Amino acid sequence: MRERLEELRVEALAKVAAASDKKALQEVRVAYLGKKGPITEVLRGMGKLSAEERPVIGQVANEVRDAIKQEIDKKEQLFDDAEVEAKLAAESIDVTLPGRPVQRGTKHPLTAVVEEVEDAFIGLGFTVAEGPEVEVDYYNFEALNLPKDHPARDMQDSFYFTEELLLRTHTSPVQARTMEKHKGKGPVKVICPGKVFRRDDDDATHSHQFMQIEGLFVDEKVRMSDLKGVLDSFVKSFFGTDREIRLRPSYFPFTEPSVEVDVSCGMCHGKGCRVCKQTGWIEVLGAGMVHPRVLEMSGFDPKKYSGFAFGMGVERLAMLKYDIDDIRHFYTNDMRFLAQFTGA
Question: In whole angstroms, what is the distance from residue 302 CA to residue 289 CA?
């Protein structure tokens, strides 16, 4: 039996060495180390041996089996390594090739406009205030001199959740809340940027959701001339130092007197063109002196304090500054449009 086992060792190792792939190697493993292999057959005949020979032949059989298995494992590892090398060679990366450009994001044009407006007014001593987009009727209307039966409420068709809860129609409630927090003591000098909502049909110049920036300055002896000076400084900062403003009488329930503010046309410089409808002026915002009733409802003594307020649409400012003809471009996420404002 010893001689037969040695013959099997030599024979199996020769076949391992001759195996050309993993499949052939697996066949050698099954043929010599399997349950039906010749080594197993030799071990089954050990019952005919004497008690002294059995451990000797058993030891030789284990040595032969281990030697064959070890060689098979070594050869299999060689095949695995060769396979990995071939795969690496086939999938090699040429590091000298130029990389794919990574597109970098940029600020949305409305965000850029809001930040530019904030910078202009912060430079004039204003601070930025914010408030809830879901507002109560009192702050959205009543605290701004718009009681329940006021006809001016029809100017702002609103999204109501309940009779007392709605999506704010302007950022003026932030002004009312801010004045209330000051408990009748000035000065109050804030701008209030944010989203507002109105039941409007979407078209090239209207949207059911848009952005506003409103401003408020309340203190002793605040005059209309202060309002004009602040707005003139803002317009020159935002549109250019060559631009002028004019004030036209208007009506807003929460200011008295009220004005519409026009800026001189940047295309024709006041001569009249298609953009300004031959007037030389373009309307940009509304403003006025804070109504005494609004001051009183917010806890300020209207005999001691006065103030001015103004409000502007962010989309309108952006459309005028960048010559955009459709407000819907801001909300369609069209990369061809947004890519134009890189570094705006």
Answer: 11
- Is the overall model pTM greater than 0.70, yes or no? no
Q: What are phi and psi of 185, to 5 degrees?
A: -120, 125
Give per-residue pLDDT as tens, 42-53: 766 666 667 777
Nearest to 189 by CA among 256, 99, 129: 129
**Residue 11 annotated in ligand binding:** no
Tens digit of each residue's pLDDT (9 = 90 or more) over 150-187: 776 766 688 999 989 999 999 999 999 999 999 999 89
Asked whether the beta carbons of 196 and 210 are under 8 A apart, the reply is yes
Fold entry, domain 109-341: BirA Bifunctional Protein; domain 2 (3.30.930)
* Burial class of residue 181 in the structure, from the number of CB atoms within 10 Å of its CB (0-12 exposed, 13-18 middle, 19+ buried): exposed
For residue 14, give the amino acid letter. Answer: A
Pull the structure tokens for residue 1: 């039996």
Say which amino acid occupies 124.
Answer: L
Average pLDDT over residues 11-25: 83
Name the one residue in this structure whose structure tokens are 């990574």.
102
| 318-344: pLDDT as tens digits | 999 888 889 999 998 888 888 888 755
Domain positions in the chain:
2-90, 109-341
Pairing of strands 281-290, 306-313: antiparallel
